[in-house]
Automatic annotation (TrEMBL):
NCBIfam families, sorted: PRK12826.1-2
Protein's recorded name: 3-oxoacyl-[acyl-carrier protein] reductase
Entry-linked PROSITE patterns: ADH_SHORT
Naturally occurring in which organism (per UniProt): Candidatus Planktophila sulfonica
InterPro entries: KR_dom, NAD(P)-bd_dom_sf, Sc_DH/Rdtase_CS, SDR, SDR_fam
UniProt keyword terms in alphabetical order: Oxidoreductase
Pfam families xrefs: adh_short_C2
Residue span, Ketoreductase domain: 6-179
């Protein structure tokens, strides 16, 4: 990376883990642009509307950022959805829509970003995966497949672009404190936490801190890696 004032793009940066990542990157000195699909973006960040399931929307979003702000050199592919259900009830649409948002969406964003990164001759592609991409999860055949697919994709980007100063890595969170997990009853929460060697859920900030490190000059020789932030749940998967 050239300096601490580089531009970082965080897809789905308007809430949850994405917003925590945007906040950490801003604190590290980057100019942060977040994408959001609907609603009102949070204050304190540059924001652009972008639907990662639509190539034209991705292209228009990047064109706006490049024209008005500059070339993003840290790309955090975080936007994603879940449609959890047991496999016998999972429709083709349930499967395909999750793959389209989480995996193909990350591809659309990264491919479009790469045009600018090749001109800069540097950059970071950071994909937000999941521990279930390695260990699987009942009711999440679609989501697990999408997150597992990010690994092969990131490693292929790493091999293609490494000689141009561009790295590609996957951050793989475990169970995270979010609005969704906050709604679980106490017994379910303690049952889940009991599966984790460190005995608790992860905070969104703990994930964001790792993303900020991978975006930093100190991580310039890390590429093609899966960095688990899962309290030991995945144990190297």
């Amino acid at each position: 990376m050239s300096d601490s004032t580089s531009i970082a793009l965080v897809t789905g940066g308007n809430r949850g883990i994405g917003l925590a990542i945007a906040t950490a990157l801003k604190a590290a000195g980057h100019r942060v642009v977040i994408t959001y699909r609907s609603g009102t973006p949070p204050t304190g960040f540059d924001a652009v509307q972008m639907d990662v399931t639509d190539s034209a929307s991705v292209d228009a979003g990047f064109a706006k950022i490049e024209a008005e702000i500059g070339q993003p050199e840290i790309i955090v592919a975080n936007a994603g959805i879940t449609k959890d259900t047991l496999v016998m009830r999972m429709s083709d649409e349930d499967f395909e829509s999750v793959i389209n948002a989480n995996l193909t969406g990350a591809f659309r964003v990264s491919k479009r970003a790469t045009k600018g990164l090749l001109k800069l001759k540097r950059g970071r592609l950071i994909f937000i995966g999941s521990v279930v991409g390695g260990v699987g999860a009942a009711g999440q055949v679609n989501y697990s497949a999408s997150k597992s697919g990010l690994v092969g994709m990131a490693r292929s980007f790493a091999r293609e672009l490494g000689s141009r100063g561009i790295t590609a890595n996957v951050i793989a969170p475990g169970f995270v404190e979010t609005d969704m997990t906050a709604e679980l009853d106490e017994k379910r929460r303690s049952d889940i936490a009991a599966q984790v060697p460190v005995g608790r859920f992860c905070s969104a900030e703990e994930i964001a801190d790792v993303v900020a490190f991978i975006a930093s000059p100190q991580a310039s020789y890390i590429t093609g890696a899966i960095i688990p932030v899962d309290g030991g749940l995945g144990m190297g998967h």
